Amino acid sequence: MSAPALDTRPGSGVSLAAFVGDDDTTAKLNNIANFHWPGAVINRGGCHDAGTYLKSAASPDLLVVDLGESENPFEDLQPLAELCDPSTQVIAMGVVNDLALYKQFINAGVADYLVKPLSEEDLETALLAATFSDVTSGEKSTNEPSGKIVVTIGARGGVGASTVALNGAWLLAEEMGHKVALVDLDLQFGTAALSLDLVPSTGMIETLRQPDRMDSLFMQSAVLPKTEHLSVLAAEEDLARQLDLHGEGIGRLVEELRSNFDWVWLDLPRSLCHLHTTVLRDAAHVQVVSDLTLAGMRDTMRIVNLFSNIGGDGEIGVIINHARRNKGMPKGEFTRGVGCQVYAQLPDEPKALQAATVGKPLAQSTAKGKFITELRKVTADIAPTVKEPKRGLFSSRKAK
Ligand SMILES: Nc1ncnc2c1ncn2[C@@H]1O[C@H](COP(=O)(O)OP(=O)(O)OP(=O)(O)O)[C@@H](O)[C@H]1O
Ligand SMILES: [Mg+2]
Prior knowledge:
Layout: E1 16-20, H1 23-36, E2 41-44, H2 47-56, E3 62-66, H3 73-83, E4 89-94, H4 99-107, E5 112-115, H5 120-135, H6 137-143, E6 148-154, H7 161-175, E7 180-184, H8 192-195, H9 204-209, H10 216-222, E8 224-225, E9 230-233, H11 247-260, E10 263-268, H12 276-280, E11 285-290, H13 294-309, E12 315-320, H14 331-338, E13 341-345, H15 350-355, H16 362-365, H17 370-382
Helix pairs in contact: 2-3, 7-17, 13-14
Adenosine-5'-triphosphate is lined by residues 154, 157-163, 186, 191, 321-322, 346, 348-350, 353, 371.
């Protein structure tokens, strides 16, 4: 037994009921319960028995249900949702080793799905993790940074991802009143600072490589305020440098920003997909920008698959842009192929985009144009307009 005993004495508020179908798991559970949950109810059985128990007893804090005998484990677990208190942490177990089933359980709110046979350590770890996530969930939510993440990523080069990110962030900040940080993660070739007439931040690479240096002083100097609501993080790193970006530094940066802004909008070069667990997985919205080409369709699908495989639970969709740059494929065929929703198809507006003077995004210079009108609808689906934007650490700085 590796972990220290939990306080699960009567009255401590942590109770366990388990319905398990085999001797081996029952014996291991009994060992664990003797140590952590002396008052636990551990019965031989499965889903049906758990249902019968819940009809006559109070819902426990932790419920373990063995679905090893079930032909349709996910469907069979459903009736318990009606009988369980919402605060009960449910751990399902079974014999089907399938990622899709696991994700189905997790998305439905099950704390964990374990595949038998199980070692005592694995079982203990899962039970404690579920218990602690329940016990500490209140604390966690207050400590977690509250800002949400939007990621814009181009399925192909030059499809307009940075144009979408810049204008989307502008609309969310300036028209809808949210406090937004736009982060251009293309640290060598990015255009966010240039388009908004800002002097790029320096020292970003050093700090991203040594995340411990990412204190509020660095943030104050690196974050470039453009307007009262929109700030930008962008660099123009030396082209001769190899950047070697790692998840830890970017993760720290995003976390800092999330504590200070309502929204962190990341313009993510597709070559940085390896940062998926740090930036993609936690995104509330992922916009994949693509043209109507076969390569665009293939790479949109690959990004959508990556997002789903890493367990991203935000929304993902494609924005079609530059559709007329070359003939491409019919929209219907593209839409069927990509396997995700189409947020919008933006019109080609070369004149407006060319005319957009440096320092002014299209959302400001041609606010009534078709491109921005379409993008405005996409942005309005991300968050409702607020009247009084929240203020944070960086809001007191004067806009340039
Ligand atoms: N709908 C559009 N109509 C006309 N021009 C557009 C449109 N969308 C983007 N552009 C233009 O296409 C060029 C490339 O756009 P942008 O830099 O946003 O693409 P990107 O996908 O970020 O490129 P990169 O792969 O280099 O990061 C820019 O000059 C931009 O003004
Ligand atoms: Mg770009």
